[in-house]
Amino acid sequence: MNPSIQPYGPSFSEKPLEQLNRIAKKPPIDIEFSDLMYSIADSNVKGGWRQLLKSVNGIFKSGELTAIMGPSGAGKSTLLNILAGYVTAGVKGSIKINGKPRDMKLFTKLSSYIMQEDLVQPRLSVRESMMVAANLKLSSTIGNKEKVDVVDEVIRLLGLEKCYDTKTEYLSGGQRRRLTVALELVNNPPIIFLDEPTTGLDNVSIKQCIELLKKISRLDRTVICTIHQPPASLFQNFDQVYVMANGYCVFNGSPSKLVPFMSSANCICPATSTPADYIIELVQSNPENIQVLQNHSQNGKQNLRQKLELRQNQTELFEIGEIYQDTTQTGISFQDVDYPTSFWTQFIILLSRMGKQTRRNKTMLYIQFFHHLMSGLLIGGIFFGTGNEASQIYSVFKYCISINVFFMYTHVMSPVLLFPLEVKLLRREYFNRWFSLKPYFLAVTIINIPILLMGGIFFAIISFFLSGQPLEFERLFWFSLVGLNVGLASQGLGYTIGATFDILNGSVVAPHILALVLALGVYGMGYKDGIESFMKVIISFSYMRFGLVGTAGSLFNNRSNIPCEGTYCHYRNSEVLMADMGMGGTKPSYQFAYIMIFTVIFRVLAYLALKYRMTSELRNKLVYYATKIVKQKET
Ligand SMILES: Nc1ncnc2c1ncn2[C@@H]1O[C@H](COP(=O)(O)OP(=O)(O)OP(=O)(O)O)[C@@H](O)[C@H]1O
Fold it and tell me: Which segments does the entry list as coiled coil (predicted)?
């Protein structure tokens, strides 16, 4: 063992993950692929399809660290995504697990995919992040003490003891990378995929990272990572290297076999170059070299191993389905269980994590507080004392518009700007089957309600009193309730946009939609009943219209004549104004109910948008088949 990894705690040979293995002993798994092809639609290419993988072959074995190497754009991430099951549509060829065709549903329960971006949940310590992972990824039948032991063990294995209580945002690049690995190790997956685990790390961290992966692979794990160009000193650390170029495999075998392989293909590695650098130089300098080498390696079929070890006892290689029937501790067949924990356990864990993160985001809480306070003072000040004066009755109407605009913009924009980041984080956890989307989305919905309610009521009360509205509880009640519901509907709309678009596109789309909602909301004011029927239908798509009618109704309905300072005020009877505005004869409670329909619809749409974004298989399939249909029509 390399002495440099000693600070990472006891070596695996001394203490081979006892806790983890006790909880989830999982047998070795080999992954084999043959004639693997993958194409994407590309109008710049003849035939309209660009082949990213060109009939590649290979077998990646358990107990080994495999590196998929190659120049930029070679197809490394594409191959990894396909093997991990992140991309499935449009893939041709065979992928076998322990000699049997891959069953995706079971395979995703056995594998972990660590993506290139080290996205970890903010405002949680390493310990807390690990405990959330353990609580979600380990069965509820396992006690808390055992979960803590597992977490401690994995933390020690990855050398993160020193930063146990450090918040994730303060971790160094290397520590964060190790934490992303640690989070996925908690449930002891037999196959681990890592996309570019060394990118952005300094040389020492790269060394530690590769040694760590090797150490994990020795625990009968199949560890497969992509790497652009490994440092020469670490090249020999891999058990198997799979070199790719332009969608082909140009070498498959042990690192020590690379030089003889190139020599046998008449490509003599100069003494001044390292083999890994040289093969990449070769394939980059001349496309003909790619053909020569891929023919020579039979596109990956030829596996040049130092010692091609076949397991002595082939019965070790279980069929995936059998594995979990043998190892489940509960007696429940693994195939029948989608997630290790129940819906409500997932919901409670996620809600508590979100609650902690919200409470710790003090800056955001202060901003929210001051935003509501200042907006209440500003809007209340602008319409100061106009509420009980008939000559100012139009100002009260404008006040209602301002209130609705406030609730709309405040609650749409936050999710539009924040949720896309959350979606990126969510993708890692969801793809690795920590939880299902329903409890997650329910937790997201619930967690924001207290702040929305408290802030909204605070704002409504300040502006209500300052603008001199009638001091009647029922009016304040309906006024606030309708406003809050506009806020809730807007939040749902914000989540729909945030789940569908990235921040840039979302921040363009959201104001456009809000402008439309606003324009329709105030359309036809003063037309009395003169609004055309078709426009009545169209404006009913604006929930702000219902918000405006509801808030105005709560202030103007059933009101005795409003005092008039001057000699004549046309609208001393506020219900006449409501009728002239084309908004009369309705109750705020009805408007509340209409807005509620939007609130529910937007939440459902947000959930579906999220599901679409998360379910890569569904997304890939839809895009793939849509493109195929378009291409078929074109030809
Ligand atoms: N969805 C996609 N649409 C269009 N082109 C794609 C898509 N996915 C991959 N490609 C292209 O396929 C090729 C292989 O991409 P891939 O990400 O697998 O390369 P890579 O070897 O991992 O490169 P790098 O080391 O730079 O990450 C690239 O030319 C890339 O532009």
Answer: none
